[in-house]
Amino acid sequence: MPQTNPRWDIFCTVVDNFGDIGVTWRLARQLVAEHSVQVRLWVDDLRAFERLCPEIDIQLAQQWQQGVEVRQWPAEWLPVDAADVVIAAFACQLPAPYMDAMAARAQPPLWLNLDYLSAEDWVVGCHGLPSVKYRHVQKYFFFPGFRQDTGGLLRERGLLERRRKFQQDASAQREFLQGLGVDRAPGRQLISLFAYENAGLASWLDCLASDSTPSHMLVPEGRILGDVERWLGVEGLAAGDVHVRDGLTVQVLPFVRQDQYDLLLWSCDFNAVRGEDSFVRAQWAGRPLLWHIYRQDEDIHLDKLEAFLTLYTKGLTRPASEAISGLWRAWNAGVTMSDHWLATRKHSPELQQHAEAWCLEQALQDDLAAALVQFYVNWI
User: Fold this and answer.
1) Lowest mean pLDDT among 132-136, 289-293, 365-369
2) What is the pLDDT of residues 53-93, one digit of tens each?
3) Quick one: which of 329, 351, 354 has its CA closest to 340?
């Protein structure tokens, strides 16, 4: 590293409750822990942050959490010196006085727009390219991704080894689940469900309830609970509630911090996830998954969905590929899931093997934090 302990500023505006802050909080912690840099994380909504990090004091303008300096992004910006590396997460607009501070530095900072994750072909061509300038300060595009010549995915050092040990330790899994109040009965498939509102959920739950293989669905508190309530015919579901209908047990879990959510994903046989952060973590779990992508205007999110499916299903037999792709498309369209779920269940062994192979393949790339640090080293 050409400079000892370079200073990094990461700016995050909370758009979708937990996705943006989830990514930036993971990134900030990893930069501090593994790359010995100083990080200030500027967040405009500490209440959302508190769900991921309960130690946060939402009243404080400045505090330190796990080695990261957390700063409240104030409505009225107070002057601060610009850092050596400035990351605008997901195209958020930096405060005008801060941009002036960047331009006032003798050595301009490296200014990066950390963009949303996508498997689309054009990402490879745009990654690392110059973007706009502010005075003489140049901004660059930085794209996470699934291919070489992108920024890779967030992955902490030793993550897959910790996951492997946990998944091979039945007592560790049992202890973790019991800590959440979950008793896993032998022979039940365990499914996690973290999703946006979805009209297709009822048909999936109907199918699970009537399946000859019993299922136990774990639902962390979140936006999908309203659809679960309607299917169960109850109101006011809360953490700890358990309902059984035929072969399906539905259990509501508390919203857990990120490290516990990883363990939840590692414990389950199948994971339904949403957005970006949980989507990536489900891939590191090495288990079959179902992605509820964040909806965008004019359905452009569906292009991202198809681009990922094109990459992800390589190596699968045609029937298995059609089954999992059909399930994802139905889920994201909010239509009937039953036939697609039954087809997916038929190919469970192949999809399980493929999920692990995909995980290991992605781990061959540099992780996102390491790629960002290397980009800075090359730039400086």
Assistant:
1) 132-136
2) 999 999 999 999 999 999 999 989 989 999 999 999 998 99
3) 329
Residue 107: burial class (beta carbons within 10 Å; 0-12, 13-18, 19+): exposed
> What distance in Å separates the CA atoms of residue 30 and residue 369, rounded to the nearest whole number?
7
Please give the tally of structural domains in the chain: 2
Contact 57, 50 (CB under 8 A): no
Distance CA 74, CA 62 (A): 11
Pairing type for strands 189-193 and 242-245 reads: unpaired
User: What's the CATH code of the domain at 231?
Assistant: 3.40.50.2000
User: Which two three-digit tokens encode residue 187?
Assistant: 């022979």
Specify the DSSP class assigned to residue 123. Answer: H
- Can you say whether residue 128 is alpha, beta or left, with left for phi > 0 and alpha for psi between -120 and 50 degrees? left
Residue of 115, 262, 276, 277 marked catalytic: 276
Q: Strand 110-114 vs strand 215-220: parallel, antiparallel, or unpaired?
A: unpaired
Nearest of 251, 244, 247 to residue 267 by alpha carbon = 251
Taking 3-state DSSP, the helix, strand and coil percentages for the chain, each rounded to the nearest 5, stand at 40, 20, 40
Task: Give the whole-angstrom CA distance, residue 141 versus residue 250.
Answer: 43
Active site residue 367: no
- Candidates 9, 20, 44, 227; catalytic one: 20
Whether residues 46 and 188 share a domain: the answer is: no
Task: Give the N- to C-terminal CA distance of the chain in Å, as an integer.
Answer: 9
76 among known catalytic residues:
no
Dist CA 98 CA 79 (whole Å): 7
Domain of residue 351 covers 159-362
| pLDDT surpasses 50 at 1 | no
